[in-house]
Amino acid sequence: MDCAKAIAFLSKNKGDISDYIYNRLRGDEALPLVLIPTTCGTGIGRKRICGTDQIRKNGDKKSLRCNAIVAKVSIIDPECMMTMPRKCWLGCLRCTVS
Q1: Which residue has the higher pLDDT, 63 or 49?
Q2: Is the pLDDT of residue 70 over 70?
Q3: Distance CA 17, CA 6 (A)
Q4: Is it the case that residue 66 has pLDDT exceeding 60?
Q5: What is the DSSP annotation of 20-82?
Q6: CA–CA distance, 8 with 26 (Å, rounded to integer)
Q7: I need a surface site. Which of 6, 7, 56, 88 has the fewest CB within 10 A?
Q8: How far apart are CA 81 and CA 33, in angstroms?
Q9: Cα-trace Rg, the chain
Q10: Cβ proximity of 1 and 37 under 8 Å
Q11: Are 48 and 69 in contact (CB under 8 A)?
């Protein structure tokens, strides 16, 4: 879903995504998103965050933050989560309760 959010954002905003992450450029548009989560608990479909591989020198992970990348529709289908490995499910559970 992060990849879809980045593509939707960059389709409407020119330049390198790191320019937006580090506030060298500003963008507030994105293509509309319909997301189908395959894990539970993170709520990423309704968040204005897009995780990236941008890592700061101190180890902090940077992310794109923009209201335009909140999904217009999020389709929740439990069948998509039935084959999730237990380790992944436990990680999602940890995110939910923390």
Answers
A1: 63
A2: yes
A3: 8
A4: yes
A5: HHTTSS--------EE--SSSS--GGGSSEEEEEEE-TTSPEEEEE-GGGS-SEE---GGGGT
A6: 15
A7: 56
A8: 20
A9: 15
A10: yes
A11: yes
Q: In this prediction, what percent of the chain has a pLDDT beyond 90?
A: 19
Tokens 């923009």 correspond to 66
Question: Mean of the per-residue pLDDT values for the chain?
Answer: 81
> Exposure of 36 by Cβ count < 10 A (0-12 exposed, 13-18 middle, 19+ buried)?
middle
3-state SS assignment for residue 84 = coil
Tell me how far apart the alpha carbons of residues 98 and 95 are, in angstroms, rounded to a whole number: 5
Structure tokens at 90: 């436990």
**Bridge-based pairing state of the strands 34-35 and 49-55:** unpaired
